[in-house]
């Protein structure tokens, strides 16, 4: 992108777990793992801004993805993921489409004055605002 000289947009995928711990879910390793992309996003946004390149990140809460299959048997996936619905203020976990919509916005011209944003793009059904 820098060599091309035409600007552009980069969107990293972080996690709300990098911002907030929840006692019911052991996640310290995951939180550290996702904290890196958040710091990287901010630093890279500053480094690439002079080249017209925006760098932002989304920080999802619980989303039904193949990652869930690492700790939940496939036949229990829907039931287990749905058990998190009540902890989200909007009453449901996220979908891949929810994340794709946010990423699409950040890659579009409509976000042309955004760079280094993470928490402002917390695609988390308001869980960072508070939990039920």
From TrEMBL:
Protein name: Uncharacterized protein
Organism: Dactylosporangium darangshiense
Signal peptide: none
Family listed: Belongs to the short-chain dehydrogenases/reductases (SDR) family.
Cited Gene3D superfamilies: NAD(P)-binding Rossmann-like Domain
Superkingdom assignment: Bacteria
Keyword annotations from UniProtKB, A to Z: Oxidoreductase
Taxonomy of the source species: Bacteria, Bacillati, Actinomycetota, Actinomycetes, Micromonosporales
């Amino acid at each position: 992108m820098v060599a091309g000289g035409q600007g552009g947009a980069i969107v990293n995928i972080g996690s709300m777990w990098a911002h907030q711990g929840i006692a019911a879910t052991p996640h310290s390793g995951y939180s550290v793992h996702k904290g890196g992309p958040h710091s990287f996003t901010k630093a890279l946004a500053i480094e690439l801004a002079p080249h017209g390149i925006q760098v932002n990140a989304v920080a999802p809460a619980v989303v039904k993805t193949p990652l869930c299959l690492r700790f939940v048997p496939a036949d229990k996936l829907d039931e287990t993921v749905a058990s998190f619905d009540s902890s989200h203020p909007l009453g449901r976990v996220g979908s891949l489409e929810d994340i794709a919509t946010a990423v699409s916005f950040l890659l579009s011209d409509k976000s042309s004055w955004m760079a280094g944003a993470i928490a402002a793009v917390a695609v988390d059904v308001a869980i960072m605002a508070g939990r039920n």
